[in-house]
Amino acid sequence: MVGIVAPGRNVAHSCYDALYALQHRGQESAGMATFQNQQITVVKDNGLVSHVFAESTLRALAGSLVIGHTRYSTSGSANWTAAQPVYRSAGTSGFALAHNGNLTNTTALAESVGVLFTSMLSDSDLVAELLAREVDTGATLSEALALVLARVEGAFSMVILEADQVHAVRDPYGFRPLCLGRLGTLDAPEGWMVASESPALDVVGATFVREIAPGEMVSITKEGMTSRQLLEPAGEKQRLCIFEFVYFARPDAYLMGHQVHTTRRRMGELLALQSSVEADLVMGVPDSGVPAAEGYAKASGIPFGYGLVKNRYIGRTFISPDQSERTASVRRKLNPLRENIEGQRLIVVDDSIVRGTTTKALVGMLRDAGAREVHLRISSPPFMWPCYYGIDTPNRDELLAANHSISEMNEFIGSDSLEFITLANLRDAIQLSGECCDACLTGTYPAPIPVVISAAGSRW
Ligand code: SF4
């Protein structure tokens, strides 16, 4: 998500650049909402940022206030009607809302206002509906946000555009990242910006100021930025998703004061100290396995090398629940460097194992390319529990680690050995002084989870 207010500037192009930098966070749809001439204009569609926004579209999106979104669906429809920002006409004008995360009490929330959640396009659509109802009864949008978000459970970082301001708010646990940046300099300020990850600030020349705190709402107008604690934070410790460090965030992002790339290298170093094995080459599975592999090589003294080439133009849309299609999708996405692999004893570092089917296909591909041994090292502990806070995961009965011992997993995947980093070492690698959410590893969910667990499939 992105939000920019820069008086006197058209900000659609900056929003485009920032969304482009955040493409990894969602590849199903992209959208933008701008405000000009007392009117909010929303453009959104299925596809990547570069597909949705032609130059002519960006030129037509005039205005100095903008919010933007790339969608990764964890609930609701995956078709274009669920693309964001969501627009609602309310009171004398309207607003547009974009949301990262997943809400866990949608059924109860919908029932509280007499609607069926199944009639809504997504959890974000439901929040927009609840906000519009409050605004229609006379509340300002800020007041409506305080009233509605206090009743919402689960994970949400949101940006909301109304006539003359952009609001950015983070849930009381801070599950999903959100940071604040300044455009211009302290002496010559040009505006403010919020974004899911700090590299989105970098690409438009904004200066990182700080992360938005759990429960905080920042409001930006052409006069400047104000902040308030909209929601009581959930204790002193925040619960940023630990998988943002392991897998989800860009390596050049800063989270909780740490550059993600550095934490991934440390994961590899600690993994090497924890589980050594004789081998000729350490290689990472692109992308997030590579810095961890570099760390593993450094700590073990075994040479680091490249064994896989990734096609960077394959999106998640190609991934299918069908096993043969999964195997095919691994081959589309990754191709072995045969001369680096042939006859070698490999240590292969990857970020996680979910169903295990992708990893099994990968190990098969490396063996076909001539690997003598394949030792898997995973930079997250076994993934045992589903996520309800914004990462799309299968049901528990499909999670390999939830139903098998590590030696059974090793046998299923076809590797020569398999080791996972311990939770203590993962926390050390991130140098956590507080807490992260680690519910998918421990089963301890910091926020309430849905009573009825959806049987929907996953595209992890
Ligand atoms: S359950 Fe796992 S994936 Fe979901 S927010 Fe918590 S740490 Fe992240």
The gyration radius over C-alpha positions equals: 22 Å
Intertermini distance: 20 Å
Shape: globular
Instruction: Provide the helix percentage.
Output: 25-40%
Mean pLDDT: 92
Number of helices: 17
If you consult CATH, what is the topology of the largest domain?
Glutamine Phosphoribosylpyrophosphate, subunit 1, domain 1
Please summarize the sheet with the most strands: 7 strands, antiparallel
How much β-strand is present in the residues? 25-35%
Summarize the structure in short.
30% of the residues lie in helices and 25% in strands.
Describe the structure.
The chain is an alpha+beta fold. It has 2 domains: 237 residues, 4-Layer Sandwich (Glutamine Phosphoribosylpyrophosphate, subunit 1, domain 1); 173 residues, Rossmann fold, CATH 3.40.50.2020. Helix content is 30%, strand content 25%. The strands form 6 sheets. The protein has a 7-stranded antiparallel sheet. A 6-stranded antiparallel sheet has the order 5-6-7-8-12-13, covered by helices on one side. Strands 17-20-21-22 form a 4-stranded parallel sheet, sandwiched between helices. A hairpin with a 2-residue loop joins strand 15 and strand 16. Helix 9 crosses helix 10 and helix 9 runs antiparallel to helix 16. It is globular. The C terminus is likely disordered. Bound molecules: iron/sulfur cluster. Iron/sulfur cluster binds next to helix 17.
